[in-house]
Amino acid sequence: MSAASPAAPVFVTSRDNALVKELRRLSQDSTAYRKQGRVWLEGDHLCRAALARGLKPQIAVFSESFWPLAPVEWARVAIKTIVIADALLPEISGLESPARMGFVLDLPAPAALLPGAASLILDRVQDAGNVGSMLRSAAAFGFSQVIALKGTAALWSPKVLRAGMGAHFSLQLLEAVEPQALDALEVPILVTSSHHGGFLHQQNLPMPCAWAMGHEGQGVSDDLVARAAFKVRIDQPGGEESLNVAAAAAICLYASSIATR
Asked: Which of 38, 53, 57, 198 fits a 20 to 30 Å CA distance from 92?
């Protein structure tokens, strides 16, 4: 069969179907992707982002009502196409209003740490929304590598994927990294503090570098602070005690990205 003649779609109407069960786990269990070696991209935005990066889904899933309206090229993009009964959409969705389509992708192979890459280090950041937002900022401001230390929210979980809005596909992602692995970095590590270090806007920031962002309540660990070449704080003339970690990351990554312009 030629690429121009894709296999006919398979119609699924049973909630006991093996694929439905797999998608249910992938959409509702934040670490199921590690066991299955596949990730579920729900909704056209994430799917378009994956295709824009040249990724080929293993399975394309369409709701029965959307299938007649789906772009022709989407019907040809995956190795296998599934059309699922609309009544089953809540079974495979992590959204209040389920999306009408999605892709199943193979989980990328574990990445090796790139010593000289501009990096974002996540130190036990717990909130999936924060993690996804920081991935978006990293991609936007030229930080190509994200190093998630053990205790950080699962990078390929459904909530992080949604918050990342496609940033995953342009980043080198490392998960469950031990702190000692950071010894291989050849770029300086920078950390933020609410009360210590010079003000960010007054610093001559190095680039490339590795910004470390810590746990929402506890901040960056003492071990990571000890590894840092720079300690800075963000001036807050409005008088707030601290910033949300994702907001702080966006400010710091942007400041580094324009430092050498």
From this structure: 53
Is the model's pTM score more than 0.85?
yes
Collapsing DSSP to helix, strand or coil, 237 comes out as: coil
Q: Are 210 and 162 in contact (CB under 8 A)?
A: no
For residue 208, whether the previous peptide bond is cis, meaning omega lies within 30 degrees of 0, is yes
At position 159, the amino acid (one-letter code) is K
Distance (Å, whole) CA 10 – CA 227: 54
Contact 171, 142 (CB under 8 A): no
- Is residue 213 a contact partner of residue 143, using CB atoms and an 8 Å limit? no
CB atoms within 10 A of CB 258: 10
Instruction: Please enumerate in sequence order all residues whose Cβ is within 8 A of that of 259, keeping only pairs 6 or more positions apart, or say none.
Output: 204, 205, 206, 207
User: 41-55 pLDDT, tens per residue?
Assistant: 999 999 999 999 999
Total residue length of the chain:
261
Classify the phi-psi angles of 160: left when phi > 0, otherwise alpha if psi is within -120 to 50, otherwise beta: alpha
Tokens of 217: 């309540």
Percent of the chain with pLDDT strictly greater than 70? 94
Phi-psi group of 91: left, alpha or beta (phi > 0 → left; psi -120 to 50 → alpha; rest → beta): alpha
* Mean pLDDT within 202-217: 91
Q: What share of the chain is helix, strand, coil (3-state, %, to 5)?
A: 35, 20, 45
Tokens encoding 122: 């996540």
Neighbours of 238 (CB within 10 A): 5
Q: Are 104 and 183 in contact (CB under 8 A)?
A: no
The string of pLDDT tens digits covering residues 86-140 is 999 999 998 889 999 999 999 999 889 999 999 999 999 999 999 999 999 999 9
Average model confidence (pLDDT) across the chain: 91
